[in-house]
Amino acid sequence: MNIFRLLGDLSHLAAILILLWKMWASRSVSGISARSQILYFIVFVTRYLDLFTTFISAYNSLMKLFFLSSTAFTIYLMLVKFRPTYERDSDSFRIEFLLLPTACLALIANHNFDTTEILWTFSIYLEAVAIFPQLYMLQKTGSAETITAHYLFALGIYRALYIFNWVLRYYQEDFFDPIATLAGIVQTILYADFFYVYFTRVVSARKNMELPI
User: Fold this and answer.
1) For residue range 8-58, what is the model confidence (pLDDT) as tens digits?
2) For strand 210-212 and strand 143-145, is the pairing parallel, antiparallel, or unpaired?
3) Could you tell me the pTM of the whole model?
4) What is the DSSP annotation of 54-80?
5) Which residues contact 155 (CB under 8 A, 6 or more apart)?
6) Transmembrane ranges (predicted)?
7) Helix spans in 27-145 (H)
8) How far is Cα of residue 43 from the mean position of the Cα atoms in its chain?
9) How far is 174 from 196, CA to CA, in rounded Å?
10) Euclidean distance between the first and final Cα of the chain, in Å?
11) Beta carbons of 32 and 148 less than 8 angstroms apart
């Protein structure tokens, strides 16, 4: 594992912990898209089917368990424990517009036409666009709490670091996965506008509780 992969994983870990802390501390899920979280859960379930059949390392297994359990817990907090604070009307992006195209693409463009590989490929394509409902919700409401912005920033950094990971692996190991690489680039591009807002409104300065989108 190279440094970019490790830092990417830690950024992903930080993003989820930031989100959970925000919800638990405020006792509210306001501004968070349950639809994006459901998509991420589908991503992890379809990607980690080998969790109990193939052992790679303790680190690998623990990270997979964390991503699955933490995302399931996030959905529980949103739809059960803190349900009255969930902004259902604002979280209205139709996820079938993401699920169906990515499923079809996985059937067409994959490494091997078998169930496990197709599901893994589907998870890669779906992860690239799973943030859409959250970004759509932010655009619809017009603002985001600063802590929510930190969560999205950490997610974006995670994907950007993985691009450097793939570049390094190509030069060091002569390894190139076009599916994962292109999907990661698409996902990072989706964050571009948000990164601009983050740096200009949060980091540069405005120390208020709301981040205009």
Assistant:
1) 999 999 999 999 999 999 999 998 999 999 999 999 999 999 888 888 899
2) antiparallel
3) 0.89
4) ----HHHHHHHHHHHHHHHHHHHIIII
5) 11, 12, 15, 131, 191
6) 65-83, 95-113, 119-138, 150-167, 179-199
7) 34-47, 58-76, 96-108, 115-129, 132-141
8) 9
9) 34
10) 36
11) yes
